[in-house]
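Chain A, query sequence.
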Amino acid sequence: MPDQTSRRILVTGVGANPGFGLARSLLKLGHRVVAVDANPLAPGFFLDDVSPYVIPLAKDPDYPEAIVGLCQALAVDAIVAGIENDLPPLLDLRPRLEAAGVRLWLPDVKSVHDCIDKARFHQVLTEHGIPTPRTWDPADLDLVPTEVDLVVKPRNGHGAQHVYMPTSRRHARALCDLVPGAIVQERVLGTEFTADCLVDRDGRASAILRRRDLVKAGCVAVSTTFEDQAVHDLVVDTLRAVRAQGLSCVQGFITDNDRVTITEVNVRVAGGFALTEAAGADLIGQMANGLFGLPVDHDQLTYRTGIFLTNYLETLRVGDVAELEIAAAPKGVTA
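Chain A, predicted structure.
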């Protein structure tokens, strides 16, 4: 069972599904959640019992002092990122935060950037013999076989933003001029899946497999848990190749000829992890244990297959923006 001690945990990116769901699960476990986002109307701000704060964007030079200021002012025990953008500045801040007693559970810097950067990710997986879509720089489009269907996406993108399926090489070239930091990848078709993963500090991994039965705008709308030893083993091999630690989610495809291909690893919880918990895996509880240096009980990360999840859009809150009382994060105190 997870440790029952109530901690104050700062969750970033509560405007998106992963951060929103993470904040809600931590609240259910009895933790006190400091919810942060750059958008003052982020849905996670309207969860009952969170402490909401608006912070600068991760790329803003004021971001570090805002995070440190919140941790100092509110005696934050730990930070868990709900969105990829927060990972690089948090890694830079890790020595300062840990010196102040604020815990993070992230892989090393190289590991995180090997996952965020899709070109580097392709290189790492290829070096380890793990099947992953072929990837090209836009300057190398002439080298792409004509029969290959393509995807154009940002090299450092996330959340299915700016992802396009070109219908021709000419179309692909035009998209590469429009997509920020574009790369070109082979398009893989088949059954899409996500593995919700937790890797403990000794390197042991648990992975819960979910089919992405229906995906809308990059978010899973219908999902079902399943078992497949070949998929599980390849997911674990992928986690080992990128030296994962803590929470992550692995995505890929099972093609019609049963070939398994890994497309990405996100160094955060997945948006549809509620299904993993509904299927019996104590994902966030065991993450909280590992975050605070306690053993991860992998027996609590087993799950039932054939459990489904259906998502739909819901109006969370309607109100007058002039009446919002969401504070801005205080500036940090420079040592």
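The chain has three domains: 8-105+316-328, 134-186, 189-310. DSSP finds nine helices and 14 strands in the chain.
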